[in-house]
Write a structure and sequence with these properties.
15 helices, 15% strand, single chain, Rossmann fold, disordered N terminus
Amino acid sequence: MRSIYFFCTRIISLSILILVVASCALTLPIRDRATGVVVPDSIAEITTIDVAGMKNWLVIRGKNVHNPILLFLHGGPGSPELPLLRRFNEPLEDEFVLVYWEQPGTCKSYSPDIRESDLTVDKFVDYTKEIIDYLRTRFGRDRVYVMGHSWGSALAVLTAERYPEVVNAVIGVGQVVNIVAGEVTSFRLALSRARKEKNETAIKELTGLGDPPAYVLLMDGNYNGFMTKRKWTLYFGLALYGKKSYKHYERYYLDATEYTIFDLPAYIRGRRLTARTLGTDVVNLDLKARAPELAVPVYFMMGRYDAISANASFYEYMRLLKAPKKEVVWFEHSAHFPLFEEPARFNAEIIRIMKETEAAGVSAPAR
């Protein structure tokens, strides 16, 4: 009996230890690549701030706290991208204070107490401004660079349109202009590929959505319809160039020290919450009407094979948009994720943009 007791005690103790370790989220310090010593004046921290009564989770990393601030707005809505940003875009930490914000309702910033009425496009623009103001106050800056991917690119543009006085430049990656246009275009391209390849399963599932797809990105609340279209868009290489799934990237989520296994339920619930609420609001978004003119420089990082964003709506917006400077940078071996598909060139372009902006005198001097 005594041996059984000690055995059970050791198993329980080990289980508790594993749970404690698995529940510890941290972001690793920035070390000198040659010596392994933590870099003086660097920053690597996880913090939370309150915005509109909601917890907002931030990861702030940079080799020098005095560098310009780059705020990254992830896509989705509700899609965390920090593990990929850490894996593929770490060189940006050498030149910026890189700030990753998990938006309300997304994974670390999810809470069952979030009110659905707080998850609207207009309110998210104001939330972004509050995050920027926190960063400006904390680091003594007048302005920050704002970079968004997919849905985050639309949010970045809308924030720059409403609050240009706090933005150095806006960078849209896989720039979303009109969600419905992007969904219809990518749906039809996926169906065309399915018919060309005689993929009967894909044909059946896609035609079952209607043409144009009846869900039109959750307009009828059909989250499953959206996911069906996304599955086949990915399979036919319209989201990732030369790849049929996200498996190549999934391992980085498992390795990320900033998350734990206990974040998974929040991620799942947050995805469905933001899709049902914010996603339904996003479907009515059209930047041609909402942001036809910007008072700050704007740059679009676009994958040549991006069927989701690089459509007629984007080309029309690029033609009509008025801004002090506007530029499209094309990535010839990318689809919707050039920041992860061609990271070396992407990182170099972002650093170039910052240096050009600083040289032109649109920088954010310390106050």
